[in-house]
Acyl-CoA dehydrogenase family protein (Actinomadura rugatobispora), 393 residues
Amino acid sequence: MQRNETPADRAFRAEVRAWLETHLSGDYAHARGLGGPGREHEAFETRLAWERHMAAAGWTCVGWPKEHGGRGASLRQQVIFNEEYALAGAPARVGHIGENLLGPTVIAFGTDEQRERFLPPIVAVRELWCQGYSEPGAGSDLAGVQTRAERDGDGWRITGQKVWTSLALESDWCFVLCRTEPGSERHRGLSYLLVPMRQDGVEIRPIVQPTGTSEFNEVFFDGARTDASCVVGEPGDGWRIAMATLGFERGVATLGQQVGFRRELEGVIELARRTGAAADPLLRDRLVRAWMGLEIMRLNATRTMAGVAAGAPGPESSISKLVWGTWHRELGELAMDVLGAAGLVAQGEPYDLDDWQRLFLFSRADTIYAGSNEIQRNIIAERVLGLPRETRP
């Protein structure tokens, strides 16, 4: 990406790098490297304060249009920002879901009133969001959603259950895909509602993961309410809006994510050298293939950024999700094979994991959350390649 940068892009990169170097010091020096998948419990309040510090300096929502509180950064500059953020070892973002999923969705499909109400608190990191998609019987097959919403006076009343809801305990709002047309099936009759989390009728139960942490949750809606105006798009048009949100999720931030992947790969390579595992020709071959896979992933991601630049990404974004989810899971497996028998032993009582064990355990989920590999292959086959739809019973 840097080979094609303009002078303005290089100046922007220098500005971002200088700001991060200056401000990831003093009060925030200890925030470097905190958080991330499997570690969202780490120093949450510190990371929230850091992100509000960023907001005060105008470094949140950099890719949003200026009229909505962003910097209006070009696609290339958004990539630069995410890369520099990752390279600086800055803490994992707490406002990611609002900034990168809900915000772009409201900008693209919301009303003027919704933009005025919901976008400024995301920019300022005053309100945090979570995603209400998956259900116990509708995870990979999201079209099977059964959570219901019924009109009730000047609002909607929501009843049902969501699961694997990241950061639900810390969130103020949730965008919820629910069925608003009784008797409807599959993709029809769904709506995309914005629901306040801090109210009677919302119960959150943390799920303890194999990593020992609980950033995922179950959320129960028992007559929870939201205003009639809190529907993004038209009632019944929720599937289209929900798919656009998933496309935004697989956008520019994934290139910053890949900087983290590169650091993990470099760490595994160094571990293999230190333990002598690099002398094993089979493991050495897998390390080379992992490096090649990361390069291919980056090239594919930059190629598909055109969908982001054009507005709502298309189904081609499923390719990126399929590629990085599989690659990262395999990296976790490779790390454990490099560790050998030592990888089977916890580092301390009662369940103290090292970074490689945590990587292995959490990356098992990479091929499932945000759309499983099987579903991504169906989307690519049917909506990108135009192949016949899968036969359903």
